[in-house]
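Service request form, structural biology core

Requester: graduate student, group of Dr. S.
Request type: structure prediction, single chain
Budget code: on file
Notes: please return the result as structure tokens.

Sequence provided:
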Amino acid sequence: MQIAAVHARPEYGFSKITRDHIRLIEGLGVEGDVHAGATVKHRSRMRRDPTVPNLRQVHLIHAELIAELQAKGFDVKPGDMGENITTAGLAILDLPRGARLHLGESAIIEVTGLRNPCSQLNDFLPGLTEAVLERKADGTLIRKAGIMSVVRAGGIVRPGDTIRVEMPAAPHEALAPV
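Core staff response, request fulfilled:
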């Protein structure tokens, strides 16, 4: 389990710029990223209530999803879907709420929930929203567009850094959109 790529963008826009490293700042997110902050920074959420805690400080997508989308004909690469961290070898969608990911030497993020796929995905590439949604046999919606987290301990994060998972105490709470 490791970090495949890291991304940040200082201004609003959909895709993030691939970097050689990012700095995570405790309680805020990715230094220099437009979504960093203690309170919500996503524009639609700020319009509703700008005082709500930011549970979406760091967005992660698994490289396996990118490969799946490429196999379906989508021209996507790491950072294109707005994630800060692209992971490899970790089933991030199976993590419970409250799982902590130890990244590199010192950074720790805590998983808060799922990214809810939105129309911005289709604005980027037509059909992408539907491509990151599936249904279980019982009809339950599966959201595959990544997970959100908050920074519990800061540090530098680079491609190739290892990821160590620390599970929360049982019972585990399944991820829901945040």
